[in-house]
Amino acid sequence: MKTKRRQYPLIHETTFRNMSEQNLAFRDVMNRIERFIAQDPRAVYDLVITTDAQTHSGHTKFVSCIVVYRVGRGAWLCGRQIILPREIFSVQEKLSLETSYSQEIAGQFGYTERARLEDIIVPYIDQGADIRFIVDIDGGSGIKNKTAAYLSEMVGRIEAMGLVARVKPESVMVSIADRETKKPYRLGVASNT
User: Fold this and answer.
1) Is the Cβ–Cβ distance between 150 and 167 less than 8 Å?
2) Could you tell me if residue 97 is left (phi over 0), alpha (psi between -120 and 50 degrees) or otherwise beta?
3) Among 75, 92, 123, 143, which one is least packed by beta carbons within 10 Å?
4) What residues contact residue 168 under an 8 Å CB cut-off, 6+ apart?
5) Which of 178, 161, 171 is nearest to 139 (CA)?
6) Average pLDDT, stretch 8-37?
């Protein structure tokens, strides 16, 4: 007797959430980031976007995160998930989709949005203030790393957007998304990122 396989829906969240807030539109995310940076405009900030994926039975779960890291002194972050109703085993496809989902979010930080954030720290640049826009890629260049063959393409895609691309071992923010991908999507249950 054949067991019936669960049918997972395609879910592509467009809103973000974190431990204290749900359903944040991108404009809400920008407001939270501006508030966070304005609390200490003399600091150095890394605005990092990253995506990780995990294949589960019947689906692949992607989690994308925006992390605003006040270097050495805390962070604000949020995320969203994408559920593809199929199991992805190809390293190239998974890495390419992770990069695409990060690019999708990074594309929302256009000239106007970046300028809004930079304007907060500009008066304090002579005191060391800075903001860097980074995409962390879940791949490494080591000889035994399965993603190494595809990294130059992924890095090129990010750099073409005018952003800094980091790969392992420097792409440390991937671990935040990684933690959330470990939990399979549960049908009929709202999940938290």
Assistant:
1) no
2) alpha
3) 143
4) 138, 139, 140, 141, 142, 145, 174
5) 171
6) 96
Question: Can you read off the two tokens belonging to residue 99?
Answer: 């990069």
Mean pLDDT taken over the chain: 91
* Half-sphere exposure for 141 (CA within 13 Å, toward CB): 10
- 184 three-class SS: coil
Q: State mean pLDDT over 63-86.
A: 96
Whether pTM exceeds 0.70: yes
Burial of 139: CB neighbours in 10 Å, binned 0-12, 13-18, 19+ = buried
pLDDT tens profile 36-74: 999 999 999 999 999 999 999 999 999 999 999 999 999
Assigned token pair, 48: 């990092």
